[in-house]
Amino acid sequence: MRRRAWLAANLCMLATPALTTFAAAARTTPPPPAQVVIEAYGDSTTLGITCANGHCGPQPQNAVSYLQDELQTHHGDQVRVTNYGVGGTMATQLRDGTGNRRAGPTAGLPWQARLAASPAQIVLINYGINEVMQNQTPEQFYAAETTLVKTARALGKQPVLQTSNPLPDNRLNARLAAMVTMTRRVAIEQQVPLVDQFAYVSGLPDWKTLMSDGAHPKPGLYRLKAEQDYQVVEPLVRRLLDGTR
Question: Distance of CA 39 to CAs 121, 137, 159, 210, Å?
Fold first, then answer.
């Protein structure tokens, strides 16, 4: 009788640390989110500008809206993608909060403050074209994108970098290629996902016919770009919804 009591007491003592560890793990493991929020930041090619008949303007058929449609086809309303693209802007402006203040209620805030107030778990970052147009150096672009990525990760967000689509003008496109090299470098150094739209679009036959002007795709090319985005973003969404981040 005394032996059975001794065994029971010792088994209880052995089980207690394991149960305590399990309970602690249960408390520290966050549940899967009810909804995955994605925010897309970038220039006019993120906003979705297309030109036709001498007029350029944002269109509902853009890469961000196509990406949301595709994600919601597979995951329903558990995924929401918000477009914060602003025409004519650069990565330095997003970093410093000096871009168009109409792009959301926190658009005038520096990147760190803006993201701290954001519910997004994933942020897409697409710049490069206006850096060429504004004669910014590749080194300045590299520094800005590095800060954007590091800040996002420090705040618990998953950054996804995107290279710009190519430009039909060969001279401008050569300068854009230097910016693209910087984006690829940041993705490697910071070990974050990359959607290499520049390489993808450049490899399409007659891709220049899919452009509406010297910088902006037609809706058909926006859809193709969204398919590339989906290949990178959907696994991230699935992991979040499964609680395996």
Answer: 8, 27, 10, 26
Cα–Cα distances (Å) from 43 to 8, 105, 179, 224, in that order, read: 68, 18, 14, 18
Degrees to nearest 5, angle at CA 118 with 115 and 123: 65
Does the pLDDT of residue 179 top 90, yes or no?
A: yes
Contact 228, 63 (CB under 8 A): no
Q: Report whether pLDDT(10) > 80.
A: no
Which is nearest to 92 in space by CA: 49, 37, 148, 36?
Answer: 148
Q: What are the beta bridge partners of residue 52?
A: 55
Compute φ and ψ for 185, nearest 5 degrees: -65, -45
Q: List alpha helices for the chain, DSSP H.
A: 2-28, 44-47, 63-75, 91-96, 111-116, 129-133, 138-154, 170-190, 197-202, 219-242
Residue 144 has pLDDT above 50, yes or no: yes
| Neighbouring C-beta atoms of residue 242, cutoff 10 Å | 9
Taking only the tens place, the pLDDT of each residue in 45-68 is 999 999 998 899 999 999 999 999
| pLDDT on residue 9 | 47
For the entire predicted model, the pTM comes to 0.85
Write the burial class of residue 64 (CB in 10 Å: 0-12 exposed, 13-18 middle, 19+ buried). Answer: buried
